[in-house]
Design a protein that fits this description.
With 83 residues, the protein is mostly helical. It has one domain: 434 Repressor (Amino-terminal Domain) (Orthogonal Bundle), CATH 1.10.260. Helix content is 57%, strand content 0%. Helix 2 crosses helix 3. The longest helix is centred in the N-terminal third of the chain and has 21 residues.
Length: 83
Amino acid sequence: MANGNQHIERKAIGQNIRKTRLSAGLSLRKLAALCRVDHADISKIERADVDPQLSTILELAQALRVPPHHFFNGHLPADPLVK
């Protein structure tokens, strides 16, 4: 995958996390209090400054009460084995 595509996907994931957080009526600090993720790290993920680790995605999903795939919203790479 090209570097540009990775940034676009990282940005889309961050935007989905932010939309979900705001829909839940949570600030960065309130979300951080619900999970083991620092509010500054959540902010970096939402701004697409960093790639979130799987454990972070799982923590955020649990705190926001959504399945982890909710954040990907069509941005998962296609599986070449599935036809």
